[in-house]
């Protein structure tokens, strides 16, 4: 259905710095148009010292919602009126919505990842999950899997940081999920944990430019054919690690569905409508099954 910009059009925004690489305007404007929702979504490059004024200005203008990306996901929290449990545990927000002149913040990255698993018919509730990375993406995924009923998660990271240990402890305490952090250099533990796991996830940038031909897993002997293997990288579509997993007979998934579904979740929060997934997949160049 056609939607035209008019005096009644609502504004949604993407704020980050840099902002102009984002695929979010394509996704949301496609979905608004398809569903005949009288709204537009625009990207704004906002530097950190302008963040507070931006949120104040957005509220004054009645901007209905926004996605927040680097470097503002944490720094925006003091300027919001309320945040979700997931945002509190992650200390990060990627979606805000205006309700009763108040901005409510939440994070949809972890939900996006879990929805992408659902499309593959992979479950998080059965067995142990092993993941690599302790950055923003890892935190969002780990916290959401714990909130959604995962029983045991082992996180490997190159660096062991106090801040991340605290996030793990708080998440474990609130959800009952057993979460442990181990150094990535402990390859014999990594081999054993991968052997015992149902799902393995890379959340680091290892495998994309400038670390294109690298993998967090040393070789394909670490994988077993029953292991489901996800990489949140989507460019390249098959990372070196995913190729190793394929060689070992594993089912694999890259990060393009997570990107899609984190957006679909924001869209749902703003409009109460399901994003027209197949249309948006076409716009993003994702294969429609
Ligand atoms: P994002 O928001 O995408 O998660 P991030 O917060 O910068 O990005 O986190 C990047 C993650 O990739 C971290 O876990 C980082 O490990 P460190 O905490 O040790 O820095 C991981 N990472 C980046 N380069 C890496 C490399 N060469 N080997 C192993 N891990 C790497």
From TrEMBL:
Biological processes per GO annotation: amino acid biosynthetic process; aromatic amino acid family biosynthetic process; chorismate biosynthetic process; shikimate metabolic process
Species whose genome carries this gene: Thomasclavelia cocleata
Gene3D superfamilies: Leucine Dehydrogenase, chain A, domain 1, NAD(P)-binding Rossmann-like Domain
Residues covered by the Shikimate dehydrogenase substrate binding N-terminal domain: 15-96
Coiled coil: none
Domain of life assignment: Bacteria
Enzyme class, UniProt record, top EC level: oxidoreductase
Chain residues that bind NADP(+): 133-137, 232, 255
Keywords, comma-separated and alphabetical: Amino-acid biosynthesis, Aromatic amino acid biosynthesis, NADP, Oxidoreductase
Family annotation (InterPro entries): Aminoacid_DH-like_N_sf, NAD(P)-bd_dom_sf, SDH_C, Shikimate_DH, Shikimate_DH-bd_N, Shikimate_DH_fam
Species lineage: Bacteria, Bacillati, Bacillota, Erysipelotrichia, Erysipelotrichales
Subunit structure: Homodimer.
Recorded catalytic activity of this chain's protein: shikimate + NADP(+) = 3-dehydroshikimate + NADPH + H(+)
Active site, per annotation: 73 (proton acceptor)
Enzyme Commission code: 1.1.1.25
Presence of keyword Magnesium: no
Protein name: Shikimate dehydrogenase (NADP(+))
UniProt KW Aminoacyl-tRNA synthetase keyword: no
Task of the protein: Involved in the biosynthesis of the chorismate, which leads to the biosynthesis of aromatic amino acids. Catalyzes the reversible NADPH linked reduction of 3-dehydroshikimate (DHSA) to yield shikimate (SA).
MF terms (GO), sorted A to Z: NADP binding; shikimate 3-dehydrogenase (NADP+) activity
Domain SDH C-terminal: 258-284
């Amino acid at each position: 259905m056609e939607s035209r910009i008019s005096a009644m059009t609502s504004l949604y925004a993407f704020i980050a710095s840099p902002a102009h690489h984002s695929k979010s305007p394509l996704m949301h404007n496609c979905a608004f148009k398809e569903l005949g929702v009288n709204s537009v979504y625009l990207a704004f490059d906002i530097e950190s010292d302008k963040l507070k004024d931006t949120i104040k200005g957005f509220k004054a203008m009645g901007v209905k919602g926004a996605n927040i990306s680097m470097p503002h996901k944490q720094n925006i929290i003091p300027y919001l009126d309320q945040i979700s449990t997931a945002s509190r545990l992650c200390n990060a927000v990627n979606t805000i919505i205006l309700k009763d002149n108040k901005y409510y913040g939440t994070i949809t990255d972890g939900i996006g990842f879990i929805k992408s698993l659902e499309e593959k018919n992979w479950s998080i509730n059965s067995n142990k999950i092993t993941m690599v990375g302790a950055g923003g993406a890892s935190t969002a995924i780990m916290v959401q899997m714990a909130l959604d009923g995962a029983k045991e998660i082992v996180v490997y990271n190159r660096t062991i940081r106090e801040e991340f240990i605290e996030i793990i402890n708080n998440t474990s305490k609130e959800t009952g999920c057993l979460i442990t952090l181990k150094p990535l250099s402990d390859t014999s533990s990594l081999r054993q944990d991968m052997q015992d796991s149902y799902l393995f996830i890379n959340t680091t940038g290892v495998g994309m430019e400038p670390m294109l031909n690298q993998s967090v897993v040393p070789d394909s002997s670490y994988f077993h054919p029953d292991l489901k293997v996800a990489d949140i990288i989507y460019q390249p579509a098959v990372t070196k690690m995913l190729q190793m997993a394929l060689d070992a007979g594993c089912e694999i998934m890259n990060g393009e569905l997570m990107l899609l579904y984190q957006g679909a979740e924001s869209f749902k929060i703003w409009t109460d409508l399901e994003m027209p997934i197949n249309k948006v997949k076409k716009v993003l160049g994702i294969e429609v099954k």
